[in-house]
Structures are given as structure tokens and as C-alpha cells.
Design brief:
α3 packs across α4. This protein has five helices and five strands, in the order αβααβββαβα. By secondary structure, it is of the alpha+beta class. The radius of gyration is 16 Å and the shape is globular. The chain has one domain: Glutaredoxin, CATH 3.40.30.10. It has a five-stranded mixed β-sheet, with helices on one face. Bound molecules: FE2/S2 (inorganic) cluster (FES). FE2/S2 (inorganic) cluster binds next to α2.
């Protein structure tokens, strides 16, 4: 491995700090939980998780916590992504691949818009009607 300069080390430290902060739920108002049980991983949850993290970095979102969980009882629709964001109903998206994951960040998290065709659970359908 090549030697790193002080500036490279500082950049690496800052990048890792940001990653660690993404797991600190207290400071953030958006929480994303990816189902990473066996069936989720088999269906591609790692790709969905990587795409979510990349898109969060790309848009420099510092208010988003991303976590993983185990079995959510939704084998039929894995990978699943559960999102809690202010002003939005808690939403579970299903069959999330990398492209859909990126779309979720852009439309749901940034644009505050539900992506109905991927929604699995609509616990606050009354709120959804108000938005349409
Ligand atoms: S093993 Fe797939 S939802 Fe539990």
C-alpha cells in the first residue's frame, strides 16, 4: 500500500466521521432501515444499501441515518427499505434495487414525494391523499 499524505489522512478521517455520524439517530430527522435478513441479502439488499449510501453522499445529506435490520416478514418483496421522514408517512418500499434506491433518495427523501409504484405499506393513506 502506498504511503498517504497528511491531507489524504485528514480527508479519510473526515469521510469516516461522516459515515459514523450516519448511524447516530439523535442528530438526524430521516431514518432509513434496510431489511438485511437472509432473504433480503439473497434478493440484493447489499446493492440497495450501497446505492442508498452512495446517493446520500452524492447529495451531501447530513440529516439521514441509515441502518439495517433483520427479517421483516416480507420475503416476497425483498429487498425492503423502511423510511421515516418529517412530513411524510412512514413508508416501506419493496423490491428495491440500486436504481430504485437512488430514486428513493432523490424523490422521497429530498423531494418529499411518495413513489407509489414501489410502496408496500401505506399506514397513513389519509396523509398520502392530502399530498396528491
Ligand atoms: S426470512 Fe424473509 S422475511 Fe423473514
Amino acid at each position: 500500500m502506498a504511503k498517504m499524505t497528511l491531507a489524504q489522512l485528514k480527508a479519510l478521517r473526515d469521510d469516516k466521521k461522516k459515515e459514523i455520524n450516519r448511524r447516530d439517530t439523535d442528530a438526524h430527522d430521516v431514518t432509513i432501515i434496510v431489511g438485511m435478513g437472509t432473504c433480503g441479502i439473497a434478493a440484493g439488499a447489499k446493492d440497495a444499501m450501497s446505492a442508498l449510501i452512495d446517493e446520500i453522499k452524492e447529495h451531501e445529506l447530513d440529516n439521514v441515518t441509515i441502518k439495517q435490520t433483520g427479517c421483516m416478514g416480507l420475503c416476497h418483496s425483498e429487498p425492503t427499505v423502511d423510511i421515516k421522514a418529517p412530513g411524510m408517512p412512514q413508508t416501506i418500499y419493496g423490491n428495491v434495487d440500486g436504481d430504485i434506491a437512488r430514486e428513493i433518495i432523490v424523490k422521497h427523501v429530498i423531494g418529499k414525494e411518495l413513489i407509489s409504484k414501489y410502496v408496500l405499506d401505506r399506514p397513513a393513506s389519509d396523509i398520502m391523499k392530502e399530498q396528491n
